[in-house]
Amino acid sequence: MTTKTEKKGKAYLIGAGPGDPGLITVRGQEILKKAEVIIYDYLAGKKLLDYVPKDAEFIYAGKKGGVKHTHTQEEINQMLVDRVRSGKFVVRLKGGDPFIFGRGGEELEELVKAGLDFEAVPGVTSASAAATFAGVPITHRNYTSSVAFITGHEDPNRTESRIAWDKISTGVGTLVFYMGIKNLPSITANLIKHGRDPQTPVAIVRWASMPYQQSVVGTLENIAEIVKEQGIKPPALTIVGDVVRYRDSLNWYEARPLFGKRIVVTRTREQASELVSLLEENGASCLEHATISIEPPDSWQEADAAIDRLGDFDWVIFTSINAIHSFFQRLLDKGFDSRKMHGCRIAAVGTVTADCLLGYGLKADLLPEKFTGEGLVEALVATDVSAKKVLIPRALEARKVLEEGLARAGAQVTITPVYQNVPPVAEGVKLRKEIAGGEVDMLTFASSSTVHNFVAMLACQDNRELAELLDGVLIAAIGPITGKTVSEYGLRVDIQPETYTIAAMVEAIVAQATTPA
Ligand code: SAH
């Protein structure tokens, strides 16, 4: 006799780090990949959520300083306990380190009270990240051998302050205040009042480790005024101490050539973003936009008819992975599976499509030497296609090379649309807003088709409106063909590399940014 043991739940409290998704620990990342429930905070980098399985339960716990809380701390504790109790693998993801002003301790106490299992994983706290990314060594043998992390959230005027202002003002070398922007005037006044030199340098770092990091430097005496003037808002850290002076020579992050530049990267969904990572390495903040959206065809009638008589076809040809996924999804939706392809020979345009077919348990019978439509025609014609019935499931609009080439060789070609490329309307509206709001410095295009799709997505009435919208935005094109397409829309190409590679395009962008105007 077997007894079914109930799966035991467990909570994992993980530090997400300061925001840059690369700064989570390896252990933390491993755990995210196994989550069944994830409860995350405002400050936990959103990109980390991509590691979490899609079918997990995502709970946003909110908590943005000064803004209405999405859930109270009690509700969060309760959700955590309930989910673990029901046997779930629950991840509690918190910004920075959960034990540093993160209430991590309080949440774990609730689990202990409920007799539940947990594990905790530390994270890079924002103080450490802010110091590193602002070029401030938080301790330094020449200046300080002690550092304190202090909450700036407490009202320093309250009589029963738990911060020993008299001791920390002069007794600790470097002081880092979390959540201290609102109280900055009283924090600095308190430190001066208790004996810290008013000329002590202070750095404020907002959104540390993010491409849009912002920082300002002043002294205890004037920093509150500077922050007010520049309108610096949370989340930001305040670093007080002589170590701030090192910033003049160590400010590597903000000194990168594209730091602060907001660059739109247009791409198709499948493209791995080499461009994004190269631009980010140089300090840019990338706004990634898919310029097309893959949608079902307006009608499935033709595809369904072809699927119903699939066995009649001698060849089925796949020229893109979108076609493969859409075709097999339809096959499954109609209650069939890959066995329906029994008897058909299968051709793939290249290794990517052939690998994709393998995922459906099918091995391509034919793969051309040259991975193009022309290459495919040549390879198929060599097998003698005359009077052969050929099915090509593909996009609604596509090049005609394949069907024409095969028809010329005597094949009976059936084309069925299994998907269509449409401009993503909502993304287009969002992008227009960003451009009109002056939030975009540059557009990059790595192919002519992305130029066309991008323009379609913006949905301007004419080229004049397009040019007005893009006035002041630089345009980079990978090569002359893409550049020509840009010009055809009446736009100016500002950057075009001599060799047509992504790496060369980024080099040209960097050169442009570092050349004095
Ligand atoms: N547990 C977190 C701190 C949470 S308290 C940690 O270890 O970092 C929230 C405060 O942290 C914010 O008000 C801000 O002062 C600071 N903070 C968090 N992330 C930050 C970031 N990327 N840049 C600057 N400050 C940050």
Plain-language structure description:
The chain is α/β, with parallel strands linked by helices and 517 residues long. The protein has four domains: 10-123, Tetrapyrrole methylase, N-terminal domain (Cobalt-precorrin-4 Transmethylase, domain 1, 3-Layer(aba) Sandwich), CATH 3.40.1010.10; 128-250, Methyltransferase, Cobalt-precorrin-4 Transmethylase, Domain 2, CATH 3.30.950.10; 262-292 and 424-514, Rossmann fold (3-Layer(aba) Sandwich); 295-422, Rossmann fold. It is built from 19 helices and 19 strands. The chain has helices at 26-32, 73-85, 104-113, 126-133, 165-171, 184-193, 223-230, 247-250, 274-281, 301-308, 321-333, 351-358, 373-381, 401-408, 425-436, 448-458, 463-469, 480-488, 502-514, and strands at residues 10-15, 37-41, 57-62, 89-94, 117-121, 147-151, 174-178, 201-206, 214-219, 236-240, 262-267, 285-290, 293-295, 315-318, 345-348, 389-395, 412-422, 442-445, 474-477. The chain has a five-stranded parallel beta sheet, with helices on both faces. It has a five-stranded mixed beta sheet with strand order 6-7-10-8-9, sandwiched between helices. Helix 11 links the parallel strand 14 and strand 15 (345-348). Helix 2 packs across helix 3 (104-113), helix 13 (373-381) runs parallel beside helix 14 and helix 16 runs parallel beside helix 18. It is globular, with a radius of gyration of 29 Å. The protein binds S-adenosyl-L-homocysteine. S-adenosyl-L-homocysteine is lined by residues 18-19, 43, 65, 94-97, 100-102, 125-126, 130, 178-179, 205-209, 234-237.
